Amino acid sequence: MLPKPLYRALAATSIDGKIAKRADHFSDWTSPEDKQHLRDTIAASDVIVIGNNTYKLAEDRLQKRNCIVLTSTVATIQRIHSLLTYMNPSNYPLADLINESGYKTICILGGTQIYSYCLHNNLIDELHITVEPVVFGEGLPLFNTPHESNFELTSSQQLNKRGTMLLKYTYNKKDLQWKPPGFQTFPVRSP
Ligand SMILES: NC(=O)c1ccc[n+]([C@@H]2O[C@H](COP(=O)([O-])OP(=O)(O)OC[C@H]3O[C@@H](n4cnc5c(N)ncnc54)[C@H](OP(=O)(O)O)[C@@H]3O)[C@@H](O)[C@H]2O)c1
């Protein structure tokens, strides 16, 4: 049997947990050290998975990268050229396309809707979060879907003197019943 692909999601957040101020906010606020981590991780990946909003903002920088762009503007899959594929995950499972293409290492680049789609479909094995020492006080969260998952911290590293922190987590399959102290579970309403 072929080994399962590794899905690695990368995100930079503010201290208050936002990935952007608005949907059209370009990620130019991250540190040089985070950008280097992004470049290194992309270089070690077979393909990038990215939402159409983020792709439109970063298209210039991604032209030489192999990208799958998630969008509702195509029925299933539209291959534009050898490095660019548009696909609609509502009509064709992303995991099927990844498996059929033989990709082994996947870099999930967001934004919120794509991180949420991947979380909801159990497609995040590793989560790298770079916390930049800034506060937005508003903005887009990392995830926007009600989906409970547990992750385990595998490493934490201070990347620069300003205090940019790189936190690496792996999905914790074993401990699905564990809940953090104070975690609220809501009763299921009977019909
Ligand atoms: N800080 C970071 O690390 C980081 C990383 C990435 C992005 N960002 C920021 O995040 C913001 C964008 O995030 P976002 O959540 O607005 O957009 P997004 O996730 O980049 O893209 C959303 C788009 O993806 C498509 N899509 C999503 N789910 C789909 C589904 N289930 N089926 C079909 N198509 C689907 C839709 O495209 P169509 O409208 O074409 O149908 C949707 O409008 C930007 O500001 C960007 O800079 C930050």
Automatic annotation (TrEMBL):
Pfam families: DHFR_1. It comes from Candidatus Magasanikbacteria bacterium RIFCSPLOWO2_02_FULL_44_11. GO terms for biological process: tetrahydrofolate biosynthetic process. InterPro entries: DHFR-like_dom_sf, DHFR_dom, Riboflavin_Biosynth_HTPR. Signal peptide: none annotated. One of its GO terms (molecular function) is dihydrofolate reductase activity. It comes from the Bacteria. Residues 28-171 form the DHFR domain. This is DHFR domain-containing protein. SUPFAM superfamilies: Dihydrofolate reductase-like.
